[in-house]
Amino acid sequence: MLVRYFGAAQAAAGVAEERLDLAAESLETVLERISARYPQPVRVGGPAMPEVIARSSFLLNEVAARDRGRVLTADDVLDILPPFAGG
User: Fold this and answer.
1) Among 64, 63, 66, 78, which residue's Cα sits nearest to residue 18?
2) What are phi and psi of 83, to 5 degrees?
3) Which residues form a coiled coil (predicted)?
């Protein structure tokens, strides 16, 4: 599965995207795995992934994903979208 990180999520992961090996797993399980992968900020003063995920929204294959029980597969693309500010 491809995971794409935006804004604070990218800062927390230190990468814009990455591939995760997974069988059929729920969105909740995938988010827990990502949080465990980046439990601390990758740079001093930066965000930690668990905090970013707690306030983010998600797209699964470019469609809003609100059901954390939804099962994801290896072919899916997950976007992690923290709140954005600006004008």
Assistant:
1) 78
2) -60, 140
3) none
